[in-house]
Write a structure and sequence with these properties.
The chain is α+β, with helices and mostly antiparallel strands. The protein is built from 6 helices and 17 strands.
Length: about 375
């Protein structure tokens, strides 16, 4: 019984998983830092009520009040965001809807109550002012890390917090022109990778605006995003399996971890916990496992006893864990569990050459070898 191979396209270099020694500040490059910043904002769902105060150069103020709703899509990367304005009366009812797509342009709409209709925004609208504020539509959500070249400028304190200082420059003219910025400099808190300060430079490389983020408060740790536990994955599988049974679905296809950028292949204990729950429920399940997208080693985090730990995961370890899960579970539970091999495709924009191309071929061959694995006897019963 051979294991099928599945190619998963992704333009985002993914976060890795937890294995090996602790990640120190010296081991993080600019790309790693910005990647962690991208994922720290990915919250399963939230609702907020906010007030925006606009102050002009004469000190005159205007207020905007709004309700914001956000939900994370199943891939664990893209969000759906709705901002609805409730004050003042001249913009009351105005709404902004954004549906993110990591591998394509986001879908964005603005609803204008005075006209009684919505208008779809296009890519070059990203630099337009967001309801008369200093924010642009492109500022509302973080762009893909892969759209920019990142350079670590060192460390610097902001508001008493030790921060990484990173310069980000658009890789393409289209990204540059659509955003309206030739570069950004971001200060990221070292303890949580949240922005403390951002400087935006216009297309003439002049400082256009400065964003300062202060008075942060942790409401609760996000154990799912930061690594979670085997118990979490067991409960996640139970909920997923029972939900499918409720709606009459008896066969499911999943990528373990939720999507191409959050595979959980640092340790087989997570896959074991997940598939043991699937086995007990009695549904048919196809589960894809395989290495994340490079460069390697990747970094990720886990929670243990309320304490977060960061680790490196080399490519070889991710292959080893995938192989262990495939050998143990492919054909298990009376044939109801099937395993698939996943390897991310490469964006044509990357144009890999020479050593980088040869390394990618080596990694692809290693993943392809997983197809040939014959399963062990079912050890899950």
């Amino acid at each position: 019984m051979k294991v099928p191979a599945v190619a998963v396209g992704s333009a985002l270099t993914v976060l890795g998983l937890c294995f090996g020694g602790d990640v120190t500040a010296a081991e993080l490059n600019a790309h790693d830092v910005m990647q962690k910043n991208f994922f720290v904002a990915k919250i399963k769902s939230f609702k907020s009520i906010g007030t925006m105060v606009l102050i002009n150069d004469k000190g005159q103020t205007r207020e905007r009040k709004s309700s914001t709703y956000s939900v994370l899509q199943p891939n664990g990367i893209d969000s759906k965001l709705l901002v609805k304005f409730t004050f003042p009366t001249d913009i009351k009812g105005t709404a902004f809807l954004q549906v993110e797509h990591i591998e394509a342009d986001d879908d964005e709409w603005i609803y204008l109550p005075a006209l009684g209709k919505s208008r779809r925004l296009v890519a070059n609208n990203k630099k337009d002012s967001f309801v008369g504020s200093d924010f642009s539509y492109g500022d509302i959500s973080l762009p893909s890390v892969e759209l920019y070249e990142h350079r670590l400028l060192g460390s610097e304190a902001v508001d008493g917090q030790d921060c990484y200082k990173v310069e980000s420059t658009p890789k393409t003219e289209s990204t540059r022109d659509n955003s309206g910025y030739c570069r950004k400099i971001t200060w990221l808190r070292k303890n949580n990778f949240v922005e403390a300060k951002v400087e935006y430079y216009d297309l003439s490389n002049r400082l256009l605006k400065t964003q300062v983020v202060s008075q942060l408060k942790l409401l609760e740790p996000d154990t799912q995003r930061c690594g979670s536990t085997p118990e979490f994955w067991h409960a996640d599988a139970q909920l997923a399996g029972l939900e499918r049974l409720k709606f009459g679905v008896t066969t499911s296809v999943n990528f373990f971890g939720g999507g191409a950028d959050v595979y959980r292949v640092d340790d087989p204990k997570y896959g074991d916990a997940y598939l043991n729950a699937i086995k007990d429920i009695g549904v048919r399940w196809f589960l894809g496992v395989g290495p994340r997208r490079g460069p390697y080693p990747s970094s990720f985090s886990e929670w243990n006893g309320g304490v977060r730990r960061d680790f490196n995961v080399p490519f070889e370890r991710q292959i080893q864990v995938s192989e262990t899960l495939i050998r143990k579970w492919n054909g298990a539970a009376d044939g109801r569990v099937r395993m698939a091999v996943i390897f991310p495709t490469i964006s044509p924009d990357e144009k890999l050459q020479d050593a980088a191309l040869e390394e990618m071929k080596r990694e692809a061959r290693a993943a392809r070898e997983l197809e040939r694995i014959e399963p062990w006897l079912d050890q899950s019963s």
